[in-house]
Amino acid sequence: MRTDGTKYSDFTGWIDPPDDVQPALNGDLTCDIAVIGGGMGGMAVALRLAERDQDVVLLEAEFCGYGSASRNGGQIAGAPGGDLRMLTLQSPKKMPIMARLAEHAGRYVEDLMKTHDIDCDYVANGLVWGAVSPLMMLRVRTQAAILRAFGGHGTVGSREELGLPAGFVGGMRESIGGMLNPGKLARGVRRALLVSSAEVFEQTRVSDVRRTGSTVEITTPHGTVRADKVVLATSVYGGEWDITPKNATPLYVIEIESEPIAPERLAALDWTSRSGIITQHQLMTHYRLTERNTIVCGVRQAQRGQTYPLPDRLPDPRVVQDMGKDLANRFPSPSDVAIERAWGGWIGISPDWLAVAGQVGDNVFYSMACNGHGLCQVPYVAHQLADYIVDGEMPEDLAGIWSDASKYSPAMSLLMQPFVLRAVSGLDRFNDFFNGSRTLARRALRRGRRGRRV
After folding, report:
1. Exposed site from 34, 120, 245, 275, fewest CB < 10 Å?
2. Does residue 312 register a pLDDT over 70?
3. pLDDT tens-digit profile of 395-424?
């Protein structure tokens, strides 16, 4: 697919920036609870705290929804992310917790849309763990069996049974979730937050967070907030502050979107379910159709962040070109269309590939590192965190991922070095070369053309 005219962005291709960006903090103030970060997690925790009649202030460096809408493919997942085989070996006792939390998180976001009347093009057609070869299908079946053993749900089927494109041999459809426009979802939650009792300051970058006696002092360029309690909802961005637990690994991931594709060319893909697909590569790639008849593709390669503060950056054109070639191989009927836009951002990967929430001392709370499944898990965990702060009673799902550690194991940080990520990506490409999926997709396209001529 052509990339010569691709537009590169550090925001997102899903939605335009809001036209009502809120003023920055200018002066000092005090509050009961301060929330740092206006992504899906920060908005959800502040909204819930406001619903519980708490005195809450939210501080966001850009505008609410800036990050949450630019790091994902718009998928509500109802099952845990990562390699379940590895997770079963590492954390067998947490697997039932993960399966339950993932399903509850999917339901939570569906309820969030209904409660706040958010129109975000949601289609509850499930998310498919896609296999591009018989060997990968074996992995899908193994992971599906693990999921079922720990209480999760999904349907394993062939390409035809699941309505997948010809370049896939089959997969497993999750029982909960589907596709949506994540920018519209974030914008809807932001709208609900702005009409709540929470004070929201956008364009307010936090430079430091530290305890001063029994309160927490938050420093910004033009004012200071002193709060009795603070929630860090900054994902991996908070790594520049001493108070934040360390060793969540920052990865830069990219999304690309094609130009609109003619309906007859989309029909030739035989993607009848229109379900989003996550491949079972070591570094997964996801694909989905949109309401505007485009294809969105994400990840495939990941780039490691080395220092804090994490730099603002645009997608690497070489990675975008590689992703465009992959799209052309996987979906040959529209292989000559252009990649219209590319965007990207930083996500956090935890040492054990589990979402993490916790507490530092008596008055600093955090949630982070949902490992690419944050669109529904992040706000769900944040909602539970808000209830815990108010009630002092920890919900069961939150307890399952809770940590009081001030520093995580360095295992994941050591594993995800740049040369390791390049080697894993190379292994995926090597396997793709021999697994026949490109040939399978092109053969199906030729059959379709012959059928139309007849």
Report:
1. 120
2. yes
3. 999 998 887 765 556 666 667 788 888 888
The percent of residues above 90 in pLDDT, for the chain, comes to 61
For every residue of the chain, which 3-state class applies, written as one string? Answer: CECCCCEEECCCCCCCCCCCCCCCCCCCEEEEEEEECCCHHHHHHHHHHHHCCCCEEEECCCCCCCCCCCCCCCEEECCCCCCHHHHHHHCHHHHHHHHHHHHHHHHHHHHHHHHCCCCCCCECCCEEEEECCHHHHHHHHHHHHHHHHCCCCEEEEEHHHHCCCCCCCEEEEECCEEECCHHHHHHHHHHHHHCCCCEEECCCCCCEEEEECCEEEEEECCEEEEEEEEEECCHHHHHHCCCCCECCEEEEEEEEEECCCCHHHHHCCCCCCCCEEEECCCCCEEEEECCCCCEEEEECCCEECCCCCCCCCCCCHHHHHHHHHHHHHHCCCCCCCEEEEEEEEEEEECCCCCCEEEEECCCEEEEECCCCCHHHHHHHHHHHHHHHHHHCCCCHHHHHCEECCCECCCHHHHHCCHHHHHHHHHHHHHHHHHHCHHHHHHHHHHHHHHHHHC
pLDDT at 278 over 80: yes
What local confidence, expressed as pLDDT, does residue 438 receive?
Answer: 62
Q: pTM (2 decimals)?
A: 0.93
Residue type, 334: P
* Nearest-angstrom CA–CA distance, 47 and 43: 6
Averaged over 360-374, what is the pLDDT?
80
**Residue 446 above 80 pLDDT?**
no
HSE-up of 13 (CA within 13 Å, CB side)?
A: 28
